[in-house]
Amino acid sequence: MKHATRLSDIGLADVDRILATARAWKDKPHPKHLREKILGMVFFNPSLRTRASFEAVMSRGGGSAIVIEAGSGSWKLEDRLNVVMDGDRAEHLKEAVPVLSRFVDVLAVRSFAHGANDDVDHDDAVMRSFQQYATVPTISLESAREHPCQGLADLLTIEEQFEPKCALPVTLTWAPHIKPLPKAVPNSFLLSAAARGCEIRVAHPKGFELHPDILGEAQSYAAASGGSISFFHEQDAALSGSRAVYAKAWGPATSAQLKPEVVREHADWMMTARQMERAAKDAIFLHCLPVRRNLEVADEVLDGKWSRVIDQAENRFHVQRALLDWMLN
Q1: DSSP per residue over 229-248, as a string?
Q2: Separation in Å, CA 52 to CA 41, 55, 57, 329
Q3: Which of 37, 44, 87, 137 is the most exposed place for a label (fewest CB within 10 A)?
Q4: Count of CB atoms situated within 10 Å of the CB of 52
Q5: Would the pTM of this model clear 0.90, i.e. be above it?
Q6: b/e for 157-172, b at 16 or more Cβ within 10 A?
Q7: Residue 296 falls within a domain, yes or no?
Q8: What is the tally of structural domains in the chain?
């Protein structure tokens, strides 16, 4: 039984296969490869692109989707073990997940990081529980640790613009925000780019390091694929000559720094045209969306020649139908 809760569930060879399928199918009629299949999606957190793209994949593929918003139209779900359930969480995942598994062919879940402790978030308890209790394949719609579907779409977008699996210089740069954000998206971009052999520059202010386990996993992928990873505390140096620039806000490395003012004090890290001009002449700009304009990224970048954020969002559809085909067929 195949799962896709993190990149390591898929493996480097099958990442190649999924991206190749997504490219091959993109401009062809939609295959009815999901006929009579049902995808069950459980959302603990809001969604726009993830929910819409997966529902579109199932509909166009001949299948259907069931959407459950935990605590809104369904019971609040408890994931903690050995607790007295005398609060507002009326149903435990130990019962909910196996029951849902009997109704669907694939079970997918979105559960964001709590942000209070990097190690707790990295443990990814809710996603692990779904995978443990499910009797069908499971997919991450973004967890506390990773967002693998986003990472695959990011790389499809880069490889459409340039050469597939090319050792490109790419920059993952931190961006300012009104509050500390989870690390799942930067984690997944770093892992996916490392798996594809990119020359990755990770730029962030001091104190915003990614989790050591993610960095170690990414380094192992880079070693296997011929890529490399470098780290910068100065944004301009990381941007120089880069072919793809990915901006994303994320929170600090330690809970002691989890204060809004910590992420606001680096306003000069917002992506502007001046910074994009430090990249290569043919550079593209990426962001997973939603994006706070003129806080994370200036209008001139999002509306400018560099931006591929709409193509990047569309590519969620294409990698996800290829991913589901890999899982089910």
Answers
A1: EEEESSHHHHHTT-SEEEEE
A2: 11, 5, 9, 23
A3: 87
A4: 13
A5: yes
A6: bbbbbeeebeebbbbb
A7: yes
A8: 2
- pLDDT (average), residues 244-254: 92
Q: Which residues pair with 201 in a beta bridge?
A: 171, 230
Report the CATH number at residue 204: 3.40.50.1370
Query: What digits encode the pLDDT tens for the residues 97-111?
Result: 999 999 999 999 999
Q: Are 122 and 161 contained in the same domain? A: no
Tens of pLDDT along 7-56?
A: 999 999 999 999 999 999 998 888 899 999 999 999 999 999 999 999 99
Kindly report which listed range (42-56, 69-83, 200-214, 222-236) carries the lowest average pLDDT score.
Answer: 69-83
Element spanning 174, H or E:
strand 169-174
**HEC profile for 39-106?**
EEEEECCCCCHHHHHHHHHHHHCCCEEEEEECCCCCCCEECCCCCCCCCCCCEEHHHHHHHHHCCCCE
Q: Residue 150 — φ and ψ, nearest 5°?
A: -65, -45
Mean pLDDT score, 126-149:
96
User: Kind and range of the H or E element at 200?
Assistant: strand 199-203
In this prediction, residue 264 carries a pLDDT of 66
Task: Note the pLDDT of residue 255.
Answer: 57
> Do residues 58 and 65 touch, judged by C-beta distance below 8 A?
yes
Residue 200 lies in a domain: yes
- Each residue of 112-139: b (16+ CB within 10 Å) or e? bbebeebeebbebbbbbbbbebbebbbb
Residue with tokens 């149903």, as numbered in its chain: 91
